[in-house]
UniProtKB/TrEMBL annotation:
Coiled-coil ranges per UniProt: none
Keyword set, alphabetical order: Membrane, Transmembrane, Transmembrane helix
Descriptive protein name: Protein LOW PSII ACCUMULATION 1, chloroplastic
Regions crossing the membrane: 82-106, 118-136
Length: 316
């Protein structure tokens, strides 16, 4: 705004004598018009720069979607926490009353029996406060951990993947369609994981598994697929299994670092993370993905068992 005020102040016309005659429009030099346009351009540029005041949202913020999903997954948690707080308040009030009664009973020497009863009541109140405070703290910690996990899953769903040179999708668009397996590590580790997946390619494709290779050293290998020269079926299935490529490596790296930090894993360790059909994290671990366990535990995405066992995605 200060820059705009300065520009306007420089455009103020000086006071001229009454006998001074302004020149006609045709006699004004062309350079003056060019100067006026230049000033207008600078003024517009200054206005645009000063109006940009919105800050980007932090990726660590808890989204409202994660809170809603937490309420849906545990609908009675809020009710339990409310009753815990009510019991804590009631026991605390009883403890305060018992304390005042104890002070009054101690001052009178002939009320020894009353003092014992008051102490029993005070002990019960203090025990109730301790128990319900512990239950509330445990429930609150479980709630915060669940919301943090759901928030990380929401951040994962917003990450981008490149299908081919012309199409980019988000992880969220694959919910209900594919079971993603993120393989993160150096290029040599990813290449070895690719070689180990070859014997299980057909079974993994039938179960909707798609691999997302993320090279932590930036050297993503080129996967050489082999298949029969006549049909090329094996080649196409390998391409489909390893066709996705992460977009914006910094965001993927940030998300993986958060996962490793929570699991107390060193940032340099190669890991795998497998997702369910609904996009939630099913399991994770160090080293290579257990391709044989994925084929053995996961149901096919097509056929008579596809809808029945969608919620039973195994542990790997």
């Amino acid at each position: 705004m200060a820059a705009m005020a300065h520009v306007h102040s420089t455009l103020k016309c000086p006071k001229l004598p009454s006998h001074y005659q302004l020149p006609s429009k045709s006699s004004i030099p062309r350079k003056l018009f060019l100067l006026h346009k230049t000033i207008q351009t600078k003024q517009t540029y200054t206005t645009i720069t000063c109006s940009a005041a919105n800050k980007p949202s932090s990726p660590t913020e808890i989204s409202s979607t994660a809170k809603i999903r937490s309420e849906v997954l545990t609908p009675f948690r809020s009710v339990r926490m409310f009753f815990y707080l009510a019991f804590i308040a009631s026991a605390s009030l009883g403890g305060i009353i018992a304390t005042t009664q104890l002070i009054a009973a101690v001052t009178v020497h002939n009320q020894a029996m009353d003092t014992i009863e008051i102490l029993k009541g005070l002990g019960i109140d203090l025990g109730a406060v301790s128990i319900f405070a512990f239950l509330y703290s445990r429930e609150n910690n479980a709630k915060n951990a669940q919301i943090a996990r759901l928030s990380r899953e929401e951040n994962l769903s917003n990450l981008k993947l490149r299908v081919d040179e012309k199409r980019t999708i988000s992880v969220n668009s694959l919910r209900g369609i594919a079971r993603l397996v993120v393989v993160a590590g150096p290029g040599s580790f990813i290449m070895e994981a690719f070689e180990r997946s070859k014997p299980f390619t057909e079974g993994l494709i039938e179960r909707g598994v798609i691999v997302v290779p993320f090279a932590t050293d930036g050297n993503l290998p080129k996967f050489e697929v082999e298949g029969s020269e006549e049909s090329g079926v094996g080649s196409e299935k390998n391409k489909r299994l390893w066709q996705l490529v992460p977009v914006n490596a910094s965001e993927w790296s940030r998300w993986l670092d958060e996962q490793k930090k929570l699991a107390n894993v060193s940032p340099e360790s190669p890991v795998y993370i497998s997702l369910r059909l609904d996009g939630r994290v099913r399991g994770s671990g160090l080293g290579y993905p257990p391709w044989n366990a994925l084929v053995a535990q996961l149901p096919p995405v097509k056929g008579m068992w596809s809808g029945l066992f969608d919620g039973f995605d195994g542990r790997v």
